Amino acid sequence: LSGLTKGMLLSFKIEAGDQANNWSSTGPTTSFTFAETLKRTDASTILLTGERVREAAPDGSMFTKIHIDENELREAFNALNTGSASSISMQIQDDRDATIVEFSAHVLNDLSGTGTIGSLQLDLSAIQVSIPWMLFKNHVSEAEQSNGLFSVKIRHEAGQLAADLQQKADREQANLLLTNPIEFEIQAGGNTIRFYDNLHVER
């Protein structure tokens, strides 16, 4: 879905059909209105939404791309700047392949003062990532020189790397803390941020 705005009323109905084009007419329905205010998980954490799209990669594998709305992020930054929130969180459905969360870099110009000590928390079921907003803010110019976006990429590694890690753990008679290893990357303008400026990123 695109073009969604706060306060918009949405209604959904599900119907079943067969190959002969016979359709039911009494399927379940539901309606909801987008919240007028930011959602919070607790007194200090703001819960972001985002436009979620499933796409196919050139190799045929699937991945999820989530774009965070600029206006929603600005409102969240305002809460960080005023001290009414200390972190911003996003709960993401984990499809157990690859997930890319992206947002416009220039929105970081709205972040100032106490807001810069906050963090972005991404929660994909068993995987949690926490990234200080200051890390993004330090790389705004780098992002703006290219595509103008920040991206956080999280990918389940089900190939050779996963097998190698399991084999190493078996040799050491140890257990993997992550039974499904992941690759994690932060990009500014499509370029990987390789140094975290002495900021602590939790994965």
Any key phrases for this structure?
6-stranded mixed β-sheet, 203 residues, 4 helices, globular, alpha+beta, 34% strand
What does this structure look like?
- 20% of the residues are buried.
- The strands form 3 sheets. Strands 5-6-8-11-12-13 form a 6-stranded mixed β-sheet. A 5-stranded mixed β-sheet has the order 3-4-7-9-10. The chain has a two-stranded antiparallel ribbon with strand order 1-2.
- The chain has 203 residues and is of the alpha+beta class.
- The mean pLDDT is 81.
- It contains 4 helices and 13 strands.
Mean pLDDT: 81
Largest sheet: 6 strands, mixed
Listing every helix as H and every strand as E from the N terminus to the C terminus, the arrangement reads: EEEEEEHEEEEHHEHEE
Structural class: alpha+beta
Q: How many DSSP E strands?
A: 13
Overall spatial form: globular
Tally the helices: what do you get?
Answer: 4
Rg, nearest Å: 20 Å
> How do the strands line up in the largest sheet?
5-6-8-11-12-13
Beta-strand residue fraction: 25-35%
Q: Please give the alpha-carbon distance between the first and last residues.
A: 30 Å
Low-confidence stretches: none
The percent of residues in helical segments reads 10-25%
